[in-house]
Amino acid sequence: MKSKFGRLRVMAILGVFCLLASACLGDDSSGGGGAVEIMGAFVDTEADGFEASLEALREEVDFEVNYNGTPDFNTLITTRVEGGDIPDIALFPQPGLLLDIAAQTDAVPISEFLDAQALEESLIPGFLDAVTTEGGDVMGFPMRMALKSALWYPVPEFEEAGYTLPETQEELNALEEQIRSDGGTPWCLGMESGDATGWVGTDWIEENMLRLHGPEVYDQWVNHEVLFDSPEVRAAFENWNQLWSTEGNVVGGTQGMLSIGFGDSPDGLFDEEPSCWLHRQGNFITSFFPDDVQENLDENVGVTYFPPDPEGFDGSPVLAGGDLALMINDTPEARQVMEFLAEADFGGPWAEQGGWLSPHTGFDDTLYPTEVERQLYQIGAQADVLRFDASDSMPGPVGTGAFWTGIVDWVGGQSQLDGVLQLIDQAWPEGG
Amino acid sequence: MLKVLNALIALVAGVGGTVVLFWATNALVERMPPRLSNAVKPYVFIGPALFVVTIFLVYPFVRTIFISFFDERSENFVGVDNYVDIVTDPALRSAMFNNLLWIAFVPTLCVAIGLIVAVLADRLPPRAEQVSKSIIFTPMAISAVGASTIWLFIYAWRPEGTGQIGLLNAIWTGLGQDPIAWVQVSTFRLNTFLLLIIMIWTQTGFAMVLLSSAIKGVPTDTIEAARIDGASEIQIFWRVTVPQISSTIAVVLTTILVAVLKVFDIVFVMTGGNFNTDVIANRFIIELFDFRRFGRAAAIVVALVLATIPVMVYNIRQFREQEAR
Q: Residue A357 — left, alpha, or beta (φ > 0 → left; ψ -120 to 50 → alpha)?
């Protein structure tokens, strides 16, 4: 009898231990009182760069600042907000979701704790428009720029072939023709991106909208005041269509566009004899370049401003994106972190590590380790108007839905342009 | 490393904890007076399971039904609007059609192929039977995502003139044709069929194992009797073997059918639902996480569950019948 009781007690203790052990498991992030949790979409080396930039802050403050990166940010932030397990600060790769979550969590506008005016003047003009509510409250700010209006070309082959960098749409068309007549294929244009296939195409349409019609029409388009089924948007689609429907202009034709991963696509630039000569993609694409290219970026690849169309909008617009900070839990500590992230010289260590561009105009560009990055930063800093990725700002059912699938169906030949434009308009939620 | 350790602790603590819990409560109950002990014991064992099922299955399901009658953010009651929306949404309609194709072909082909293999393997020497069945069963052990990745390489496309790394295109170009991006070919929904082959590949082993054991359970005297009466092998198969294993066939069919209704991972990995290959479960993911329309997402799930229920009921009935024999 006694031994039986003893065994019972051992088991009870074991049970308690097991419960404790499993309770401790999930608990590696939240930290103690006053700690600030930042959640973001970048991981690995990018997260290292961010961590390095946070060091300056950590030395100053007496609370913990923890960064949690997840490639599955959009899903996870949604689930965590639903579940009430909310990070103090979240860094959104897209403004639409930021505004959604800000409304859902009653987050405070940045003017409550920052000099919003000064921030606006320091940033490349146009950045804050994307995170402004209909009521005029600015809910967040960029802490990183993703520049999209970039044209990549192989170095030194480009020059050796006698090509010159185009500065207008017309010169670009002439260059394409020259490359084709030399027996080359002008464009590396792979769009495949798993369930997100389509975004490469929407970026192209956005680029064309901005260059053809300028920021005002662009904004109206984002707000659905200009329909997809309108002469303006149709012109942007057709402009792009000309690029890939021209025989021999794109590697692999339309099958290639939809099969080749967006990250593998620029590899053609670096073939012994470039299998394609031009690539339009955001600055992030360098991380997808082959390792030996990345090691010697400046000797392998050049980048220039994607040429504007003087017959369209008169000016030099750029298309950009960025990671946008939102403070969800309003605490004194979180405010301190937000102030730090908003500083014009934030990100020095990250810039030195590479792969990061400042959204501020006055950033010290000598910190960038490569000429390519300096060039990219300057394209952004010198633009006279910057616009955010339109599809990011459109409602989800359009921006990550019908717009993507419409482009894929159109390029793949499953649908005609008319039907695609009408379907996208129909997908717009009521009241839009 | 820390993650591995964490997983290990979780595994040991989780499994160990459950064992200890049952052990301890059982020991407690056994200390009660015998009559009370016997009355309480079943509930001690079924109680935790019931509790967990209620918390993690019944409650969320009831809540999901509730949400499906509310708007995107679950704030305002909208009646059956979400259900009207999902049946009129062209994207979802196309997905439903694809699901019908999956339902029509995957379970039947799995059973048909599984049955053929089971019957043929039954006639092999024991060693060869074991080996051949093991090989066919192997894909069952691969996760759907893993299997899809394998097939991604089989269907892979490379530009004309470069080396084809995809098996199918290697054969195709070997025959002198231009490479084709197979998963993009939606003519006659060819690509959907290419995707459902993957599921057939993974599920046939499951069908084969169950059917094989059922065939071995068919009394030999019935077969011998048929043979003496002069029945051909094909007649024996259709008139003697199949009727006696029909309930197993039904169970296998319905089990695979339920898996097919939920199919998501294969489509997600292979095409992301593009090129007219979308399925209902993927529409749900898109509505919930990309579009954030909770009401619609919930309505899709409820519709999917409603479609599953008759199959489940039939499945359980068949299973009971089989058990009763």
A: beta
Instruction: Give DSSP secondary structure letters for A406-428.
Output: HHHHHHHTSS-HHHHHHHHHHHS
CA–CA distance, A326 with A40 (Å, rounded to integer): 10
Ramachandran angles phi, psi of A40, nearest 5°: -150, 180
Note the helical H segments in A246-324. Answer: 253-259, 291-295, 297-300
The C-alpha atoms of residue A376 and residue A379 are separated, in whole angstroms, by 5
Report in angstroms the alpha-carbon separations of B58 from B50, B62, B255, B261, B309.
10, 6, 21, 20, 14
pTM (two decimals): 0.81
Q: Which residue has the tokens 């930290």?
A: A31
What are B62's two structure tokens? 């009831």
Which stretch of DSSP H or E encloses residue A279? strand A279-280
Residue A379 structure tokens: 């394209």
With an 8 Å Cβ cutoff, are A21 and B13 in contact?
yes
**Does residue B186 sit at the A interface (CB-CB below 8 Å)?**
yes
Mind telling me how many Å the CA of B16 is from chain A's nearest CA? Answer: 7
Please give the Cα distance from A287 to A265 (Å, whole number). Answer: 13
In tens digits, chain A (432 residues) has pLDDT values of: 344 445 545 444 544 444 444 444 444 444 445 899 999 999 988 999 999 999 999 999 999 999 999 988 988 998 899 899 999 999 999 888 899 899 999 999 999 999 999 999 999 988 998 899 989 999 999 999 999 999 999 999 999 999 999 999 999 999 999 999 999 999 999 999 988 899 999 999 999 999 999 999 999 999 999 999 999 999 999 999 999 999 999 999 999 999 999 999 999 999 999 999 999 999 999 989 999 999 999 999 999 999 999 889 988 899 998 899 999 999 999 999 999 999 999 999 999 998 899 999 999 999 999 999 999 999 999 998 889 889 888 888 898 889 999 999 999 998 999 999 999 999 998 754
Distance CA B92, CA B307 (A): 15
Q: Dihedral sign for Cα A314, A316, A322, A326, please.
A: negative
Nearest residue of B to residue A27, measured between CA atoms:
B6
- Asked if B6 has any chain A CB less than 8 Å from its own CB, the reply is yes
Judge whether A400 is closer than 8 Å to chain B, CB to CB: yes
Query: Which residues of chain A neighbour B4 with C-beta distances below 8 Å?
Result: none
| Nearest Cα residue to A146 out of A42, A70, A270, A223 | A42
Instruction: Please answer whether residues A249 and A180 qualify as being in contact, where contact means their C-beta atoms are separated by less than 8 angstroms.
Output: yes
Q: Tokens 């590899």 sit at which residue?
A: A267
The distance from CA A331 to its chain's CA centroid, rounded to whole angstroms, is 28
Set of chain B residues whose Cβ sits within 8 Å of the Cβ of A191: none
Interface contact B60, partner A, CB < 8 A: no
Q: Do B159 and A100 touch (CB under 8 A)?
A: no
Q: How many CB pairs under 8 A join A and B?
A: 105
Residues 6+ apart with CB under 8 A from B151: B197, B198, B201, B270
- Residues A215 and A136: their CA atoms lie apart, in Å, by 19
A97 is written with which tokens?
Answer: 């979701």
Question: Does residue B243 have a cis bond before it (omega within 30 degrees)?
Answer: no
Distance, in Å, from the CA atom of A407 to the CA atom of A237, rounded to the nearest integer, reads: 9
Within 13 Å of residue A117, how many CA atoms lie on the same side as its CB?
0
- Within 8 A of B186 by CB-CB distance, chain A residues are 412, 414
